[in-house]
Structures are given as C-alpha cells and as structure tokens.
Specification:
single chain, mainly alpha, Arp2/3 complex 21 kDa subunit ARPC3, 6 helices
Length: about 180
C-alpha cells in the first residue's frame, strides 16, 4: 500500500492538471482584446479561484499556470505567457493559502473566500501592470487602460467562484477538510 502522502500528492497533481486545462479552455473561449496593451479580458479567473478555494493552494497554483497555455493560443497573447505563468500561479497559490488561513481564524467561509480572492486578484492586477510597463515597455497610460478590465475580471471571478465553491462543498462535504 502506498503512503498517504504519495496518494495525496498524486491527487493534487491530477486535480491541478485538470484545472489547468479547464483554465486554458475558459480563458481561450471568451476573449475580449484590449488594444492598448494587446492583453485581453477573459473568464479564466473563475476557474482559478474555484480550484484554489475548493482544493487549496497547490491546485490553485497549477490551475493558474493553465492560463499561460491560453496565452500561447490566443493571437498576440504569447508575449504574456511567461508573466501569466508566474502571475496566475502565484494568484492561485495565494488565494488557496489565504483562504485556508482565514477560514481557520474566522470560521466564515464567505468572508475568507472573498478576502482571499480580492488579495489574490490584486496580484494579478498589479502583476500585469508591472509586466507591461517594466518588461514590455508600454507607457503607463496604456497599462492603466487595462487595469479596470483586470479589476472586472477579478470581480466576475469572485461572483462566480464563491457560489460554485458552495455547490461543490455541498455535494462533496469531505472537501471542506481541504480548506
């Protein structure tokens, strides 16, 4: 019989791979280009947040990395792929980690999920702003045009992910121990 940690690690890797694929699909299927930066608005955040809230930081990080796959597929998005890999993985990891810590302190799953998503979303918002200005050399004004799109992307992710989290935890109450 395999040790319990090996089985848990295998499950995390498998779930992470599945969620990374789902993020790539959700990101790729709904793209609204932002001409000022060649970035784009998408719905991948909803899946990243759901994965991180339900299955924790490592699955959230794997899921976030899936957005880089979509960047490679979306016309003009490849320039963002390296940043996306880091930013979205860090975002997913942060949401999962904060949600666990805050839930243990507050015992309020809605509050912990909301605060976690907002703080994780700020990593995405300011991560892309910094990348566009510091690495891609876009003018600050151009990068500022994208900020509201990223804020809306985060808010939509929150509005969608929290109810999905509740639905998943209602169907699979044993997953609450992951939080």
């Amino acid at each position: 019989m395999q040790p319990k940690t090996t089985i848990k690690t295998t499950i995390i890797i498998a779930a992470g791979a599945i969620f990374a694929a789902l993020v790539a699909i959700a990101t790729y299927l709904f793209v609204i280009p932002i001409p000022a930066t060649t970035g784009y608005f998408n719905l991948g955040e909803t899946v990243i947040y759901t994965a991180a809230l339900v299955l924790g930081p490592f699955v959230g990080a794997f899921a976030g990395g899936g957005a880089a796959i979509a960047d490679l597929l979306v016309p003009g998005g490849a320039v963002f792929a390296p940043a996306t890999l880091v930013i979205k993985a860090l975002e997913g990891f942060t949401v999962g980690t904060l949600n666990k810590k805050l839930f243990h302190k507050t015992q309020n799953i809605t509050l912990s999920a909301t605060v976690s998503v907002v703080l994780g979303g700020l990593i995405m918002i300011f991560g892309y702003f910094t990348y566009e200005v510091a690495v891609l050399g876009y003018p600050v004004a151009a990068a500022l045009i994208e900020l509201p799109f990223n804020v809306v992307q985060m808010v939509i992710g929150l509005i969608v992910a929290v109810p999905i989290m509740y639905a998943v935890l209602r169907v699979f109450p044993q997953l609450k121990s992951q939080i």
